[in-house]
Fold each of these.
Amino acid sequence: MQHGGNYFSFKHNSIIEPGFNTSKKFLSWGKIKSKKVLPLFNINNLPYKKLYRSNSNKIFVYVTLMKSKRNKSYNNYEKMINEHRLMSSSLDGLKHKDKKNLIIRLHFTDQKFMRNKILKEIFFKKNKYQIDYSTLPIKEVYKKSKLIIHGDDGTGILETLSLNIPSLFLMEDLKLITKSCKKDYLKLKKGKILFFSPNEAGTSYFTDSLILICDHNEHGSLGLIFNRPLEMKLKELFKGMKIDLSSGQAKSADLVKSTVLVAVTIIIAMIAGYYLAPSLGIWGRVIAGLICVVGWYILAQTTNSAFKLDGNVFKAVIAVVIASIVSAAMGAYVWAGIGEMGASAWTIVFPGWAMGDIVASILGLGVLFSLTGEMKKRGLSTY
């Protein structure tokens, strides 16, 4: 059965694996996706089921084992030293009144020479703390603690959390944690139970981070971290950076407004062309075309459409008019000869054809420019 921490969450647990791999059934402290596992509870806490805690201000610190052995597939000695340094720098940042109530609890299996070395060179370098050499019964520790700080993710943090004792633990990083368990550790970080740095305010994000610096100036820096989870939605991030997500995109109100305006423009242009054509001839049709331009101008000014009137638009209008006239002239020429319409092709077919092309093309310009504007934003070719 499980008898401590790091089961199923640690990548290099050579002590635990043989017991699990050689058993037919395995009793665990929690749920694990395995048919051989029978999930129970933290059996170490059975003696403390009824635990009456006092109103003490004591802060107990469970530090990592102090041993010099290098007997793992990773550098466990370096990991131990780094964990002690992380704990020491974290304790240095505490308020003076909290330091007075702080007790460092050492493990009874610590090597004496390593213990003296680490206490002297790391923990007592700036401050002097009370030391408990595991002489105080664990039940008394639980009763008298306002807070328990653990130096790693071992057995201790599992016991105090399950007893509902205010607890937190420190870790250098999650390099040695299995992929399937990392999300659970990140939940603990979000809940302010797991910390990676002494002044935890997100600074651990920059440890072993892959960062692309996008901008750096006198006001600060802006970068993208590629190998850390983002604990907020992009919408919230952009809102905090005062980036308007609606910029360059049509809102539903704009879409309705645009549709109505286009429809009204077409109707007015058709009515104008029908009634003005007999009395004003070609000029009546020109006026109908200009109405389309006015309609698009109103559309550009009253919506967030990417279509804006500028020099390029007017060049496009001139090109549309020339192309429409040439196209209509070619059609009228064919109808005059092959269609045997004679001169009437130039007075009937040509004006109507030209005006129809001009009106349709000018109305299409808004859509065309909106599309090209959006394509440029996305880095696409507009050829």
Amino acid sequence: MQPEALRCLGSHVRVILATLVLASCGGTPPNQTTDLGSEIYFPKDEITWEIASPVQLAWDVTTLSRAVSFAREHRSTALLILYRGRIVTEEYWEVDDLPTFTHLRNVPSSGMSNAHGRPIEDVGSVQKGIVGLLVGLAHYRGLLELDAPVSRYLGSGWSQTTPTQEAEVTLRHLMSMSSGLSRELSYEAAPDEKWFYNTPAYSRLFDVLSRVSALELNKYTDAWLATPLGMPDTRWALRDGGLNRYGLVTTARDLARMGLLMLAQGVWNSRRLISENVIDLASESSQPLNPAYGLLWWVNGKRSWDDWTNTGMRAGSFIPTAPNDLIAARGIGDRKIYVLPSRGLVVTRLGGFAMHDEDGEPQRRFFDQEFWRLLMGALPAVR
């Protein structure tokens, strides 16, 4: 049964339950595969997407249901779990009072849905991971070099520093948040001497990509990423204010396709789009100042971490309940793409912050830690 049909009945998608009911009756759900080999499956379009039964995978269905229930009970609008590209579970819910942290011109940041009834949201800083993919696509096409100065592509005067200081800042520095620039793009430190989560500096990558592609933002995103991966609901929209003038508006399914490109090391359906080296660089520590940050992707399992609040380093892994090889694109409202290569998983989540403290401040690690504690409990032991 398709998700839009379930929504018409006033319910939400329950791939787990549909699989179990049909399996108990001796049937096979539509699109469910019986071949769960080691090869990654790439969905052909929005309608045709194969399903992997958690029973076939020997997952603990009771614990998996608890993980899904946790997401539902904590302000999620969408949860999608892929195993080697196939859907294990896909659920959608309605959530009241989602934070409208941005205001898009002509496009609300929440409350929209696509033709199939799936929510479309501005995913906040999850977009940084997607821009990392776009830079990787441009690199593979020979249009830019990661260690080239930003001035090579934007000319002089793109920052508020001296020409000498400006010439030392490379694309890699913008992607690793180690440019040494302030939010006003003035000089604070030499590159590689300070880690500072800097959205305005990162945003200059949009200008670089437009220059090297000779295309507008949505056109190069569509040509390089959305069309090849089959993402009909992904686009950029202008925001009215904020640190970044662009918002990425997309669905859980489209985000999952982008996570699948990371899982497949830059290959989509036998076609290489991004070099494996760039994927590796994005997925590992990009500098020693904050080892939990790669190139616009968060990296788990490191000795310490800081986040976008720039409040200082903390000891340990940023998601201690998840395996060390997990990487993530993370945005406001606990919007996520998680990629776990060692277990062949891609997980996407949309919605609002799962938890706030007594002062109303969001608890940014709460969803990460509890969800992964439950999900890892559902997976079979590694042999």
